[in-house]
Specification:
two-stranded antiparallel ribbon, 8 strands, alpha/beta, six-stranded mixed beta sheet
């Protein structure tokens, strides 16, 4: 008799939406989710930071963007910034987790993400996150104690087993040996527990770094320093199975439009331009200057012509510098 496989529990998606760039990116994300994942049965929740002492201006969504998000089926939920705010906007993804219902697994996506395929059916029962990263932290310094000493000090701080987090196929003192994620997407079965742990760990690291990391920069890396500790502490780890397809096959974390046009596959750029084309979407997105110029006025195609996707420069910095030299950089 064939053994029945337990169906994955439906999940919700969270992204941040606020005034300016992030809101317009969230609208493009919402449009791509509706177009490319018709089977998604959960909520798309857009967490919106509110004015307050940690925001010198008003971070709320522009009205046209708000209207488009709602037309696309998103639920906009306000939250108060109590720990981060404008001083560290990446902290929105930590504090915004409080907007999620507690009765379903979650997938957090950075606003600069394009959905490429059907997400329904993904099993998010094990906490994990994106492996689409470089060795950006810790930063090698003249008098630093090394990767092992820095990461172990953090695992020890939070009572976690360090050795079980290591990828032993990678050499000692190579950044890839240590559990490290891109915080562009992460997921888990318990949004409330994930939120509490993420907030507690990130604030502890920010306010009281371990002696071993005393000379290490935390801006903008704080979320990516805390994230492995959160995931390991909740029993998760590196992505496996279908969830790993969020790194390119099911979703594209494009990050900055000039970089996307420079290096993403033809099929991904075709999806981006197709999703941005309908008049209700175009009317709103072109209100943000980089979208208007890169997508609708053809600057992205000029950037694309500068590079051979089969032979890209080895480092992102080299791609950025070439784009800037040609005068096409926008964010």
């Amino acid at each position: 008799m064939a053994r029945k496989t337990k169906a994955a529990k439906p999940f919700n998606i969270l992204c941040i939406g606020q005034q300016g760039r992030v809101g317009h990116e969230a609208a493009l994300l919402a449009a791509s989710l509706r177009a490319r994942s018709p089977g998604f049965a959960g909520q798309l929740i857009v967490a919106e930071p509110q004015p307050g002492p940690l925001w010198p201006g008003d971070p709320r969504l522009d009205p046209p963007v708000r209207g488009l998000l709602e037309d696309l089926g998103a639920t906009i939920v306000p939250f108060e910034s109590r720990a981060f705010g404008a001083a560290y906007p990446n902290g929105n993804k930590i504090e915004g987790l409080a907007c999620l219902p507690g009765d379903a697994p979650f997938l957090f996506l950075d606003s600069d993400t394009l959905i490429l395929g059907e997400l329904a059916g993904l099993d998010l029962s094990r906490p994990t996150a994106s492996m689409q990263r470089e060795g950006t932290w810790p930063v090698e310094e003249l008098y630093w104690p090394g990767y092992t000493a820095i990461w172990k000090s953090l695992y020890d701080r939070f009572g976690l087993d360090f050795d079980s987090s290591l990828d032993l196929s990678q050499p000692d003192e190579y950044w890839g040996r240590y559990l490290y994620f891109n915080a562009g997407w992460f997921c888990g079965p318990d949004p409330a527990g994930f939120h509490r742990r993420f907030l507690d760990i990130a604030v502890s690291i920010r306010d009281d770094p371990t002696p071993e990391m005393a000379i290490q920069p935390l801006d903008p890396w704080l979320d990516q320093v805390a994230l492995p500790l959160v995931i390991h502490g909740l029993g998760g780890g590196r992505p496996a199975g279908a969830v790993a397809a969020l790194d390119g096959e099911l979703a594209c974390h494009w990050r900055v439009l000039p970089l996307a046009y420079a290096r993403e596959p033809d099929a991904t750029i075709a999806v981006l331009e197709e999703i941005a084309a309908p008049n209700p979407v175009k009317k709103v997105l072109k209100g943000y200057d980089p979208f208007r110029r890169m997508i609708y006025q053809g600057r992205g195609r000029k950037v694309r012509a500068l590079f051979d996707r089969s032979d890209l420069p080895a480092q992102e910095r080299q791609i950025r510098n070439r784009i800037k030299k040609e005068g096409f950089w926008m964010r």
